[in-house]
Amino acid sequence: MAGFLYRLGALGARARYRILIGWAVIIGAVVMLAILFPGTFESSSSVPGSPAQTAYTKMERHFAGPESQSARVVLRSPDGARLTDPALGRTLERVLADTGKVPGVTAVSDPADAGMISPDGRTAVADVTFGVAAGTDVAPATLAAVKAAGAPLRAAGARVVYAGDAFQEGGPPVHPGEVIGLLVALAVLIITFGSLMAAGLPLLTALIGVAGTTAAMIGLSAVFGITDNAPTLALMLGLAVGIDYALFIVSRHRGNLAAGMPVAESVARATATAGSAVVFAGATVVIALAGLSVAGVPTLSSMGFASAAAVAAAVLMSLGLLPALMAIAGRRLAPKPGSRAARRLTETARPSLGVRWIGGVARRPVRTLVAGTLLLLAMAAPVTQLTLALTDEGSDPKTAASRQAYDMVAEAFGPGANGPLVVLVEGSGKAQVERTAATVRDRLRDMPGIASVTPVDVAGSGSAARIGIVPAHGPTSGETRKLVTDLRAALAPVSSATGQYVAVTGLTAVSIDVSAKLSGAIVPFAVVVVGLSLLLLMVAFRSIAIPVKATAGFLLSVGASLGATVAVFQWGWLSGLLGVPALGPVGSFMPIIVMAVLFGLAMDYEVFLVSAVQEDYGRHRDAHRALITGARHSARVVTAAALIMIAVFVGFVMSHDPDIMPIAFALAVGILVDAFLVRMTLVPAALALLGDRAWWLPRRLARFLPKVDLEGSGAIAADDRADDRADDRERSAEPVPVHG
């Protein structure tokens, strides 16, 4: 691998302008294809084959209707009045009639006929259907006219809120918080390198990588189903790892230049050494993210593959484009002689804070291990209270119309009105279906947790019937999840006795099944991740102790990040400061995504930190010296990389997206804990305590494990020795002058 990367880096330095033009053509072509043939991202979350999804598909077939774009209008009377009052009632009728006359509107439901006027008469809900297909944007003029039709009610003091798919508010492509995160990352790079040009290269390659990945996803969404959250997650991870991977290579390149190495040779060696670690780290992250597909949830698979593609693009940019850019920059990337940056790279500066910290940890390893482990366990304690559910409009910011409509409906009709359930009965004859449906309705009458039950609705074919259920609690509550379980248990005997198909469905039941599927996948995925961690690190470092302590540190980091997420998003700690839209269950996708990403990033830091220690230990066989020397070579870069990732993730926390916000927060906390408390504190303490035993490997196992040179230093050293021997042979072959 190192030899191939060396040749790749040398090619980048030699043909730098042609490579730059080639990448410009490739990225430009991808962007152009995305503009010419754009697709659309999907917003559904389902598990094919789950009980609720199977029943929902059957119900759509029996009760098929025009799949048109729709909206929901929630109306509330002013204080002291009711929508059923004669004067206000006439105004409501006129508003609904005027709404139905708007060009592009095909139907407007009557709240009275649909039973959507609240018991106190103050709130009503009307559904508006448009003449465009579901998922298609409605003309802005049509939406404006629908809103204008509600002016008489607003003039009478009523509140009118427009929500639903047609009025869904799209956020800006880039939030201010994300820009702030990038600016903080740039500041960290400038402080690390002491050079604006050196700081700009990692940011530039990362931005090019995510731009290409985003354009590719837009184009591929026309062919493949890509969830609407996948681009945001891919953007977040692509930026974070893209900056970090380029940072490692540029840092190694500047060290070579500071030592007086020619530019072309420095580019090739930096690509071979730091690039080898980047390939290993990137492959680990890609494998972990692609492994999300084992959960069997298409939405999660889409997010995993999209993020894996973004990480792969970051690796390609770091190895394919960055060498050409470094060669074009030439010696301008070299630190000025005598500068602080030059002294750090040539090891003539005083030890950095990171080196002094690790030295202090090495002097008190037992105390450090005990205190650090107890702190992480305390942070992880809240994870026992973690509850999961798919997000809905109740998780949106309070300023969003969707959230306002959600809260108004819950207040007027009860929390369960936002998440109704449906019981589907399917049979061969109308009479039999009606009898079974009547039996089902009788069973539902006295079940706890149900607020109301609708009359039986028989399909036109007579082969199916459905019964609506309004739960007594909200769609994401534990009580509603229990109700779905109880309903299935209570209705199973009815299905067996009648021979009819009886199932609980509805979007709420589908979401509950998805959440259960994701929750059930966490432990198997964790077992796979832990096993993969042990295997990869055992191969990488040829040690038993290092993989075990690294995996234990990863589990502590995951526990601490999830515990902090529970404290903020469920308990409300610091929720006001962070702008958390709503407290309650955390998104079901969060734990498994955080576990996959943190696994990859934790392995990154383990590789970059411990490989430097391993290299020095292999030369001098002095465990303490290797620990301090390794810290001198890697602590500053690992610190900068962690701070950059934290800045990027915090930027996405500030976007207040209910799906992305807890993931970004958990990753920011996880990186903070893993980089500084685990890799920079507990890992050095464990290495200091173990000494030479940290590198022990049974001889039988050593014969089977392949030898991996993580940073390619062995291959480079071998090439140097071969070149030296060739030079010696050339000198010995030269004729010796004879002076007579």
From TrEMBL:
SUPFAM superfamilies, sorted: Multidrug efflux transporter AcrB transmembrane domain
Protein name: RND superfamily putative drug exporter
Localization (cell): Cell membrane
TM annotation in the entry: 20-41, 179-199, 206-226, 232-250, 271-292, 304-330, 366-388, 521-541, 553-572, 592-613, 634-654, 660-690
Basic and acidic residues bias (residue ranges): 719-733
Keyword Endoplasmic reticulum attached: no
Any one of the GO CC terms: plasma membrane
Keyword Calcium: no
Organism the protein comes from: Pseudosporangium ferrugineum
PROSITE patterns xref list: SSD
Positions of the SSD domain: 179-328
Primary subcellular site in the record, as a coarse category: membrane
Membrane topology, record value: Multi-pass membrane protein
UniProt entry keywords in alphabetical sequence: Cell membrane, Membrane, Transmembrane, Transmembrane helix
PANTHER family: MEMBRANE PROTEIN MJ1562-RELATED, MEMBRANE PROTEIN YDFJ
Signal peptide as annotated in the record: none
Family annotation (InterPro entries): MMPL_dom (IPR004869), Mycobact_MmpL (IPR050545), SSD (IPR000731)
Chain spans, region Disordered: 719-740
